[in-house]
């Protein structure tokens, strides 16, 4: 694949924990990599759940490489040296609990919000997709992700309180976009642990569809956002896979969770390819 293709940099963000954010980052990224696209997953959560999900032990004696903590606080640490391979076309920058100290240690750095973007810039030609697993809070780590990303995708459950939380999250992204990254857009909602037979969940999804339809044509950062399909069905295999240090495709490749994430990834990749084709045609027409 040509390294001249642009990199799609996405922050997966929800200020509520336990909504399927890490599960989505891992398995959507793994499915994109399975489709042959070079993908980098970045663990920005001090809990290190993405790292654990993939069975990576960044502090192992035989792997004396920097983690996300060193990458942020040590000017000499490079993103290239922090990468751990997690499979064909799939790499990871892991995290440890040390990352929780980064916010305090960087408090006096006036350029602290853009550290991640600067460190990742040399890697952009190597990957087509970079996904950030953000912590469930709006601190320095999340701000760094929002400065480095071009898109925000929100994993959530279709519950009433979660719907209210998404409204607050959109407001927050709008503030960040206005202050530090005007290119940032909210492009999608991923429905996790979904049960389509539950009428309340259907109502929440309908409300989301209506809300985003009303935003079309406005200047809001979420004017192009939509609920991504298919939703990810509730599936115990998705909850079990992290305890084995595996993606859902390595653990239970034929289960409903694997089917849903693979279908979602295929749609994400296809829409990305179509967008790039439209851009190339437009640019070509402009040159002509």
Short description:
The protein is of the alpha/beta class. It has twelve helices and eight strands. An eight-stranded mixed β-sheet has the order 3-4-2-5-1-6-7-8, with helices on both faces.
Please tell me about this protein's structure.
- The chain is built from twelve helices and eight strands.
- With 288 residues, the chain is of the alpha/beta class.
- The chain has helices spanning 21-34, 49-53, 68-73, 79-82, 102-105, 115-120, 140-148, 160-179, 199-215, 236-240, 248-251, 256-287; strands at 8-12, 39-43, 84-87, 90-93, 129-133, 151-156, 185-191, 226-228.
- The chain has an eight-stranded mixed β-sheet with strand order 3-4-2-5-1-6-7-8, with helices on both faces.
- Helix 1 (21-34) crosses helix 12.
- Helix 8 links the parallel strand 6 (151-156) and strand 7.
- It starts with 7 loop residues before the first strand and ends with a helix.
- The model has no long low-confidence stretch (mean pLDDT 92).
């Amino acid at each position: 694949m040509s390294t001249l293709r642009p990199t799609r940099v996405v922050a997966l963000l929800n200020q509520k924990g336990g909504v399927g954010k890490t599960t989505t980052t891992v398995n959507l990224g793994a499915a994109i990599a399975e489709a042959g696209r070079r993908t980098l997953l970045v663990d920005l959560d001090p809990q290190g759940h993405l790292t654990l999900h993939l069975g990576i032990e960044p502090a192992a004696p035989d792997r004396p490489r920097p983690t996300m903590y060193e990458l942020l606080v040590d000017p000499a640490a490079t993103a290239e040296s922090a990468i751990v391979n997690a499979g064909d076309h799939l790499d990871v920058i892991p995290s440890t609990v040390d990352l929780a100290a980064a916010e305090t240690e960087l408090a006096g750095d006036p350029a602290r919000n853009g550290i991640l973007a600067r460190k990742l810039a040399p890697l952009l030609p190597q990957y087509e997709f970079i996904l950030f697993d953000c912590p469930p809070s709006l601190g320095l780590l999340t701000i760094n992700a929002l400065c480095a990303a071009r898109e925000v995708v929100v994993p959530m459950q279709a519950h009433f309180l979660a719907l209210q939380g998404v409204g607050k999250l959109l407001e927050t992204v709008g503030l960040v976009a206005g202050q530090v990254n005007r290119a940032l857009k909210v492009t999608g909602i991923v429905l996790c642990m979904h049960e389509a037979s539950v009428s309340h969940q259907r109502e929440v999804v309908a409300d989301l569809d209506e809300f985003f339809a009303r935003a079309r044509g406005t200047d809001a950062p979420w004017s192009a956002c939509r609920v991504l399909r298919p939703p990810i069905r509730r599936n115990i295999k998705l909850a079990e896979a992290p305890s084995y240090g595996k993606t859902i495709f390595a653990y239970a490749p034929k289960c409903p969770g694997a089917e849903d994430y693979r279908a979602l990834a295929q749609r994400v990749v296809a829409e990305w390819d179509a967008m790039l084709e439209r851009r190339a045609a437009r640019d070509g027409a402009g040159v002509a």
